[in-house]
């Protein structure tokens, strides 16, 4: 029905000498929660979806409707997750139609309310719990008491685990992080006691303890608080990575087993619990790897000035993420020093974090002053093959050792020559042996 009606609309535009666009047909796919055929096209540069009204019946143990039929506008409105999503616009009368008789008022009052019993709605489709949180944070609205009570019910929590795929949870979570109020999202997840379900811990943890979800709330709060400082995210991508790192900060220092080997648990959380991309998983894993190193480095820099090579070798280790990792390390230290502070109100915390922020701002400035912002891209002045040739060695583990010596020397001697570097290699190897 959706495709046929979209075709009719295109014909109408053609008859009125208006330009038309191609129509994309999206077939039904219940396994991906597409229960009826949908068509999509653009009208006056606005993307519009076409599908027919419907009503649904659910069976226990599944969030996929067992029976779908064409429905009336009222039936279709009541199958929606929340009242503010159930409003219709009648193109004939040019009026908004509110069949639940709550949508317009809830929109005015800033309320997220289910279209019928929250418990029954969530039991039918537990993903609606997560969607309620997302829409509340997107618009800065409040959840009804009924929603909060239903979301905390053991049966609903169990259904959320058993009936909803990790991919769907991950998709909703990603939209929250990208949305206008990520702090409200993680606050609601924490308040509704859903953090262990949304950000599920690996089952094979072998060392370390997962911190309580309040740590994630405060970490996200600090990222938002840093917004008016030098340590603020420099672009949308960095902000997302800082927020994502903050959300999973309770897993810092936790180790899990994978293929009989110990690995940082955070990678498994991102991969399996919220189904991020491999790029996101690698980014956050690198940031987590850098936090303890940078925390120690920043402290050392307050006691004595860091050498160019000390800082440069860490930047080479972290690659292009070095600056993001420094900012996330500041977040971690603020949490360590002020664990009891509620960071949701940034105005009250301006003076508190100045000294810590300055410590990490100094680190970023030092990188710039030393001219090593992109030293992770530097090539070795003398490559491994040449180093082995000079010393009459065969390729092996010792070459890695020599390359480290070479890069440290390069960092300490920005005006050094290749000949000088080769002499340093010979002296180093001679002294060692």
From TrEMBL:
InterPro entries, sorted? NT_sf (IPR043519), PolA_pol_head_dom (IPR002646), PolyA_RNA-bd (IPR032828)
Per UniProt, residues of the tRNA nucleotidyltransferase/poly(A) polymerase RNA and SrmB- binding domain are 158-198
The record's similarity note reads: Belongs to the tRNA nucleotidyltransferase/poly(A) polymerase family.
Name the Gene Ontology molecular function terms of this record.
ATP:3'-cytidine-cytidine-tRNA adenylyltransferase activity; CC tRNA cytidylyltransferase activity; nucleotide binding; RNA binding
Gene3D superfamilies, per the entry? Beta Polymerase, domain 2, cca-adding enzyme, domain 2
> What Pfam family is a match for this entry?
PolyA_pol_RNAbd
Superkingdom of source:
Eukaryota
In Swiss-Prot or TrEMBL terms, this protein is called Poly A polymerase head domain-containing protein
Q: Name one GO biological process term.
A: tRNA 3'-terminal CCA addition
Cite the entry's keywords alphabetically.
Nucleotide-binding, RNA-binding, Transferase
Residue ranges occupied by any Poly A polymerase head domain in the UniProt entry: 5-113
């Amino acid at each position: 029905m959706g495709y046929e009606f979209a075709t009719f609309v295109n014909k109408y535009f053609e008859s009125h000498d208006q330009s038309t666009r191609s129509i994309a047909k999206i077939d039904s796919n219940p396994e991906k929660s597409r229960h009826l055929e949908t068509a999509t096209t653009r009208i006056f540069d606005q993307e519009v979806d076409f599908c027919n009204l419907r009503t649904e019946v659910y069976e226990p143990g599944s969030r996929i409707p067992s029976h779908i039929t064409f429905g009336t506008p009222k039936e279709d409105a009541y199958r929606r997750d929340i009242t503010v999503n159930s409003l219709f616009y009648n193109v004939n009368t040019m009026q908004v139609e509110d069949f639940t008789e709550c949508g317009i008022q809830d929109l005015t009052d800033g309320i997220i309310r289910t279209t019928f019993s929250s418990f029954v709605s969530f039991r039918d489709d537990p993903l609606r719990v997560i969607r309620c949180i997302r829409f509340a944070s997107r618009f800065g609205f409040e959840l009804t008491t009924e929603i909060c009570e239903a979301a905390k019910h053991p049966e609903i929590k169990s259904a959320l685990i058993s009936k909803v795929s990790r991919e769907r949870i991950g998709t909703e979570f990603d939209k929250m992080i990208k949305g206008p109020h990520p702090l409200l999202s993680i606050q609601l997840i924490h308040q509704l006691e859903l953090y262990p379900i949304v950000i599920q811990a690996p089952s094979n943890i072998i060392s370390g303890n997962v911190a309580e979800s309040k740590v994630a709330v405060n970490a996200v709060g600090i990222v938002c608080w840093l917004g008016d400082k030098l340590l603020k995210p420099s672009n949308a991508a960095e902000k997302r990575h800082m927020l994502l790192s903050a959300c999973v900060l309770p897993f810092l220092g936790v180790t899990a087993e994978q293929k009989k080997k110990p690995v940082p648990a955070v990678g498994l959380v991102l991969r399996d619990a919220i189904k991020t991309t491999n790029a996101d998983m690698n980014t956050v894993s690198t940031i987590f790897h850098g936090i303890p190193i940078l925390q120690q480095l920043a402290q050392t820099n307050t006691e004595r000035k860091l050498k160019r090579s000390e800082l440069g070798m860490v930047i080479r280790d972290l690659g292009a993420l070095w600056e993001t990792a420094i900012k996330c390390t500041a977040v971690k230290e603020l949490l360590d020093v002020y664990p009891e502070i509620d960071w949701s109100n940034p105005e009250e915390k301006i003076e508190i974090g100045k000294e810590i922020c300055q410590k990490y701002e100094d680190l970023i400035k030092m990188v710039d002053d030393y001219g090593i912002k992109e030293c992770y891209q530097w090539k070795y002045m003398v490559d491994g093959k040449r180093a082995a040739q000079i010393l009459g060695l065969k390729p092996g583990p010792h070459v890695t050792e020599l390359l480290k010596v070479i890069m440290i020397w390069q960092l300490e001697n920005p005006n050094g020559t290749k000949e000088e570097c080769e002499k340093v290699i010979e002296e180093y190897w001679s002294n060692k042996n």
